[in-house]
Every structure is written in structure tokens, then in C-alpha cells.
Amino acid sequence: MRRHLHAERHIRRTGTRLAAGALVLACALLAGPVAARPSNVVSLNICTDQLAIQLLEPDRIASVSFLAADPHYSVVADKAEQFHLNRGRAEAILRLDPDLVLAGTYTSPATVRLLRRLGYEVVQVPPPRDLAAAREQIRTVADALGVPDRGERLIARIDRRLARAAPEGSHARRPVAAVYEANGVTPGRGELAHAVLHAAGLRNLAARRGLRNLAPLPLEALVMADPAVLVFVSRRDAPPSQAQNLLAHPALAALKQRAAVAVVPPALWSCGGPQLARAVERLAQARARALAAPEATR
Amino acid sequence: MSAILSADGVTVHLGGRRALDRVDLDVGPGGLVGLIGPNGAGKTTLLRTLAGLLRPEAGAVTLDGTPVRRLRPAHVAARVAYLPQGGGSAWPLPVREVVALGRAPHRRGWTTAWTAADRAAVDSALAATGTQHLADRQVTTLSGGERARVLLARALAGEPDVLLADEPVSGLDPYHRLEVMTHLQTLAGAGHGVAVVLHDLTLAGRFCDRLVLLDGGRAVADGPPGAVLTRRRLAGVYGVRALHGRVAGEPVVVPWARCADETPAADRGEGWPAWAEVAE
Amino acid sequence: MIAAAPRLPVFAAALGALTLLAAVGSMLVGPAGLAPQAVLRGLFTADADTVALVVQQIRLPRTVLAAGIGAVLGLSGAALQGYLRNPLAEPGLIGVTGAAALGAVLMLYTGASQSFALALPAGGMVGAMLAVLLVLLLAGRAADTLTLILAGVAVTSFASALTSLALNLAPSPFAALEIVFWLLGSLSGRSLEHVALALPFMLVGGALIVSTARALDALALGEDAAQSLGFRLGAVRWRLVLGTALAVGAATAVAGAIGFVGLVVPHVLRPLVGHKPSALLPVSALGGAVLLLLADILVRVITPAQELKLGVVTALIGAPFFFTLVIKSRRRLA
Questions:
Q1: Which chain C residue's Cα is nearest to A223?
Q2: Chain C partners of B48 at a C-beta cutoff of 8 Å?
Q3: Which chain C residue lies closest to B124 (C-alpha atoms)?
Q4: Is A238 close to C172, i.e. CB distance below 8 A?
Q5: Cα Rg of chain C (Å, integer)
Q6: Residue from the list B91, B110, B135 with its beta carbon closest to the beta carbon of C277
Q7: Is residue A106 part of a domain?
Q8: Where are the domains of chain B?
Q9: What are the φ and ψ backbone dihedral angles of B32, each rounded to 5 degrees?
Q10: pTM listed for this prediction
Q11: Contact assignment for A254 to C32 by CB distance below 8 Å
Q12: Does C48 contact A254 at a Cβ distance shorter than 8 Å?
């Protein structure tokens, strides 16, 4: 009798093991496409650089663009220095043999075509045009990197900080702000800067004039508009050029005396990321100074 | 006759070679001096040195005894007028303006305005050269003879004491050659000192009071035409033989043949035409 | 009986009036859309309101520079033509503006002019001086047209190549694109600081050039005749070289190389002053000022947002003019 029961239990245990084994095998076969995450990522674009560094473990990043190590353009410049810095040239990229290449839609089309033709996977993201697009950019990159949950957490963090940074009563009074870059260009509707200005409770002079993307704004027009807030993008020690020296024009210096001035480097507002909140904070401070000024009617 | 402009033992080097070798020349008032000599003898160089355009390595050019080197160029220019060879105007200026350029040494400062003295001098220069009727024409539209006279008027407009003219008649027809030489003779007669570079020995012999014969940078003869234009000189310096005669008391020298092409008769002066008085 | 060109003062006065008119026009044109009364008030007020800022800090420097640079280019063109006895000489064609641009580029993009503001016009003046000396050396005096133009082409090509190289090596990312500014010229974004940097040198240089007026007249008769009239030709040459270097060098340093003004203006005005070089100097200055003022008004009217470069307008006028000159001289030589 006992020998019969042993045999029965033995057969049942083996069957279970067999069934379990079959189940694991079936799962393994079905889960093939959801493979290992990219472990040798090359990024060619400043936005994807920063996101890669913010979302991925360092040992999975093969290279980021040289701009990522420039604190003027990147908020993770110190972290970027440990990586190989590329200049977007195909040779260097091929030598790194990446399993994923992140690029922007404006990255050299020839390079992108070449990489794809050679069988590399290239994921391109457009420059973010507004805050929604910034969130989309993060999602796309996070998915490509295989860490969608980290992407969502990042987006949530950004939204929290943006909400904290946005000024009180920002819908009530919106002073006019103008961003003036080298060569006299200003970001209009369609630039991320425009959305950030709006989030900070300001009105973008460029948008009021109907300008889209980065557009030239004559100095005379800027002076006559006499904005309450002036925003500059360049660093003080930028190397000299006619484009740069325009920002030292005496008329602009006089405007600076009359307005609240803020300096927001490209690092803070050219890409999606937590740094956008810092840009909003700076602009909100400038807005507050402008509203506190005696002729706060603009 | 005291000289106004004088070259004393001047030596000038040009382009590495000695263009003038210890040449003396006095240009005095009331005399027409002719500078003659073969091509490259240094005639133009001597004239330019006298005008102060070239600085001699040795010797000196003096104006009224003072070395020209020590005088201000404008001061020299007010007294010595230089008429370069083959001159013209780079721009189609009216003749009046071209002649007025001769007044430059007398104008002061930056102004280009005309004074009464300027106007008078230009008028008399135009009259002296018979070019009043050309006064408003553009100088570049003139014929060779007209232009030569206009440029002479330019030199005269400065009211100089000395006139230095470099081949003023080259390229002119016979009428205008005689006309210009007559002008120069009149000038000399009026008390100016005039030195002229000439190739035409006939004109030189007839119009000049004195001839200076240059050869290879040296002055080999200096005296009245009769003493300079001898057969020996012409053969030795030019390598030519000439016909010599007199017309109405004036010497006539006409270069006739090169020494190399000779006939024995000519060598002895035989068989040559006898000159009679030329009918007027 | 003898007239002393009585038309010249009248003609000069007429050109002067035209210059004033063009200057007024230049002050009235701009994207700010100001009414004339506003501009007038803004010009003389001591307040620092926006209208005053626009008029005094943006439009006034432009107007002063356009008039001054145009005058200097016309003047130096007339003087060079008088000295070289060649109607094709002008600072653009013989390479002076190209070399001046090179000198200025070397000062600006290396940061030298940031430490020492006068380094900018100094660079332009040194470049211009070298070009004039080089052309005089290559072409000699009374050089034929072919030699002169070839010398100018050589200097311009070399200077442009070096300018392009310097801009490509410069640290600023904007530098390489700014070659257009340097080779064609522009008054956009100029300020009273630029006026202060350039105007003194333009005035001194202009005065030096004007001082050669009487000698230029005499040079019509040739160098020997001119020297025999009491002019020290060596000193005349130095005044012309220095004057051109100072004036054109400083002008190019703040506005880039603007061509053809010194070619067209003296050529057009010469018959109207009886071909006299000394009379041509002041009227070419006024004519050049008018031309450049009008050109600067045009670039602000045609493409207000992204202005055309000044050299484009002057070349559109000057190059066809140059063609007709070539055709005319061919017919004369043929």
C-alpha cells in the first residue's frame, strides 16, 4: 500500500515539475521581443544626452555629445565628463558599436542614414516645442532605453516642481517679457522658451508680434516695446563676434536699467527635464521684481 | 653777363651709370642756350638737374649764388619754369585751367582760388603764345602744335626768370617749330634766361646765342654756334657731316650725311652747293 | 574774362543740401515707425525715453556713420584716381578695404578689441596702410590700368582668404557666418561707440587727403612738371597713403568693406567739375555721403527684418557701372 502511495506522489511531483518547466519555456519563448535593455547607448543630441544620463546607469552609456559636458548647455555637465564625448561623426560612433543610437531630428541626416543602413537602431526625437512635447520626448527616450517607469517618474517630478515654481496669481497680471539672443533673435511661438515664459506668468513679446520659432527682432522694435522683463541667454564671457557684441549695444544697456533682467542659459530650457522648473523659478523672480517696480503698468 | 641759374661741376648718377660728369652750365638773363648732343648724352638729365628734380652727387646747382638744395622748392619754382618733354594732361582740363597750373608756385596755402595777379599772368601767357582763342577748349582735344604752345603758356604763366624747355618742338610741323623757337628767342630777348634741349641742329644753330654740346655726360663744347658746330665736332660727336652756309647773315647748318657713307669730294668740302641769299 | 569755375560753390552747396536731405531721410526710416515730429523731439531731448533711445542711440549713429563712411570712400576714391591718374582706382578695387577688414577681424575675434577698444580701428588702419603701400609698390606711380587692377585683385584675394581663415578659426560659433558682414559691409547694430571709434580717424584722414588737392591738380601735367612747380611729391604720397589708411581703415573696421562708392561717385561727378582733381575732392565726399545714406535707407526699407548688406546695394549700382567703363575703354583702345 505505502509503495503505491510513494509511486503516486513521485509521479505527481514529476508531472508538476514537467508542467512548470513547460510553462517557463513557453514564457521564455513568448517574452523574446521584450529583450535585455540597451547596454551600449550612444547619444548625439544634447536633449537625449541629458535624458540618457538622468535615466540610465552610467555603465550602459557609451558616449554622449560634447555639448553635454558644457555647463552652458547641459545640467549634467559634471556627470557627462566621464563619458566619451562625440561630435556626431560616423567613424567615432561605429567604433563604439552601439546597440542604440539616440539623435535629434536635426542631427546630420547623412550620418543617421548611414547608421541605419549599417543596421544600427537610431531613435530620433524632435526638439520639444512646448511642455507637452517635452513630456513626450522623455517618454520616447525612456521607452527606447527600456526604462519607461523611470521616465514616468521623471515626468511626475517635473510636473511637481513646475507646479511649485509657477508664481501665485500668474494668470492675473502678465508683464511683457522679451528674450534677446545674440544676433538679435528672439524665440516665438513654437519654441520651448515660449512655453516656459507662459508658465512663469509672463507674456512673450515675440508671440505678441506674431513671430514663430527663432526669429529676428530689430533692436528698434525691442526698444519701442520697452518690455518689463528682459531675458538673456548668453554667458558673459562668450567669445566676441558681431552677433555677440550686439548685446552690448548702449540702447540695450539703457533698456536693462528700466527692466527686470534675468539670465537663463540654454541648459535650463532647451530640453525637457527637471531643469525647466529652475528656468520658471528665475523668470518668476524677474516677474516679481518687474511687478514691484514703480511703473508696473506694462 | 651774370648767371641766374648755374650748374657747377655737377655729377649725376642714374640707373647705375654716370649720366653727367662734372658739367658746368650757366643760364644767364637775356640768352638762349641750346643743349645739344647725341641720344643719351645727358641733355635731359642736365636740364632736370638744373630744374632741381635731380640731386647731383658732386657739384651744385645755384640760383643767384644760393645752392638750390637750400632753397624751398616753391621758391625755386617761382623763378625757374621747367617744360618736360612730350607733356600733356592726364585729364581733359580746359586750356585756361592748364595754363593756370603754372601759377602754383605763387599760390599760398590750400586755397585754389584765383587772384587778380593770377588772372593777369594767365591772360598774358595766353597772349604771348597766341592761344587765347583756345582758352575754353579741352586740352586733350588740341593738335600737337596747339598743345605745345599751351604747355609753353603754362610755363610762362608762372612769370619765371628762367625757362628750361626739353625738346619743345619735337613732333611739330615746320610752321610751329619756327613759331615756338621764335617765342623762345623773344623771351630771351626780353631778359629771361632760356635753356633749350634740341635735336634739330639747324634750329639750334639759327636761334641760339650759345650752344653747349654734350657727349657721354661731359660738356665737350660751349660757345656760339659757329664755334661749336664745326665739321670736326659734328664728325667726332655725331658722326655726321653737314652743309654749312649763311643766309641773311645767319648761320645755316644742315646735317647731310653720315660719316660712314662718304665720297672723297665731300671730305674735302668740294662739290657742295654754294649758298646764295635766299629770296624772301 | 577768365572764370575761376564759378559753378563749383553752387554745385557743392547743392550736393550739401542733398546730403542733409538724405541724412534727414535716414533718421526718419526704421522699424519703430516714428512720426517726423517724434524723431525731431527725440533727437534733441535729454530724457531717456524709448523714442530718444531709438533716435539717439540707434538711428543717429547709423546716419552719422553712413554719411561719414560714404564721404571718406568718395574722397579717397577721387584722391587715388587723381594721384594714380587712373579713373579705375578706388579703395575697394585696389584692396584697401579688404585688407582693412582683415586687420579689424584679427582684432575683434581674438578679443583684443575687448581689452582695448581702439585696437579695432587700429587693426583696420594698419591693414589699409599695408594694402596701399603694397599696391603702390606693385603698380608704381603712373602704372597702366592692367597692372593696377591686377595688384588690387591680388591684394583683395589674399586678404579675403585670410579673413575667411581667421573667421573659421575664431572661437565664437557665429564668426564663420560673419564673413558676409566683413566682405559686404553693414551699419546694422552700430552704436555711438562705433562712431567714437571711427569718426576721429576719418576726420584726420580726410583732412590729410584734402591737403593733397593742389598737388593732384599739378600731377595732371606729370610728375616732373608737378615737382618743378614746387610740390614735394614724397610728402604728397605720404599724406595720401596715411590719410587713406586712417580714414578708410577706421571706416572699414566698424562697418565692413563697402565697395564701389569710390569708383562710381568721382566718375559721375568729374565732368561736372571740369575734370579738375582738386574740385573733385569735396564733391566726391558729399556725393559718397549721399550714395551711402540712400543705400542704407534702401536696405532698411526693402528687407526690414533681416537687412541686406550695404555692399550688395553698392555693388548692384557699381558693378554695371564698372561694366560700362570697361566697354568704353575697350572702344577707346580699339
A1: C50
A2: 224
A3: C2
A4: yes
A5: 20
A6: B91
A7: yes
A8: 5-224, 230-280
A9: -105, 110
A10: 0.88
A11: no
A12: yes
What are the structural domains, with CATH classification, of chain C?
76-328 (1.10.3470.10)
Averaged confidence pLDDT in chain A: 88
Question: Is B5-224 a domain of CATH 3.40.50.1220?
Answer: no
Q: Summarize pLDDT for C217-248 with one digit per residue, the tens.
A: 999 999 999 999 999 999 999 999 999 999 99
Q: Do C2 and B135 touch (CB under 8 A)?
A: yes
Kindly report the CATH number assigned to the domain that includes residue A81.
3.40.50.1980
Neighbours of B, requiring at least 3 CB pairs below 8 Å, are C
Residues in B 69-108 with any Cβ partner in C closer than 8 A? 72-78, 80-84, 87-94, 96-98, 100-102, 104-105, 107
Mutate to test the interface with A, among C50, C254, C299 (most CBs of A within 10 A): C50
Q: Tens digits of per-residue pLDDT, C12-39?
A: 999 999 999 999 999 999 999 899 999 9
**Of the segments B127-131, B186-190, C122-126, C313-317, which one has the largest average pLDDT value?**
C122-126
Between the CA of residue C181 and those of A172, A240, C83, C309, C314, what are the distances in Å? 45, 15, 30, 7, 14
Secondary element (H or E) of residue A26: helix A2-30
C276 contacts in chain B (CB < 8 Å)? 91, 93, 97
Cell reading at C318 = 557699381
Q: How many domains does chain A have?
A: 2
Q: Which of A130, A149, A183 is the last residue of a domain?
A: A130
Three-class secondary structure of residue C187 per DSSP: coil
**Is A242 found in the same domain as A173?**
yes
HEC string of A59-97? HHEEEEEHHHHCCCCCCCHHHHCCCEEECCCHHHHHHHC
User: Which pLDDT band holds residue B161 (cuts at 50, 70, 90)?
Assistant: very high
Say whether C57 and A250 touch across the interface (CB within 8 A): yes
Domain of A65? Answer: 41-130
The angle formed by the CA atoms of residues C289, C295 and C300, to the nearest 5 degrees, is 130
pLDDT in tens, A184-212: 999 999 999 999 999 999 999 999 999 99
- The verdict on residue A30 lying in a domain is no
Residue A19 lies in a domain: no
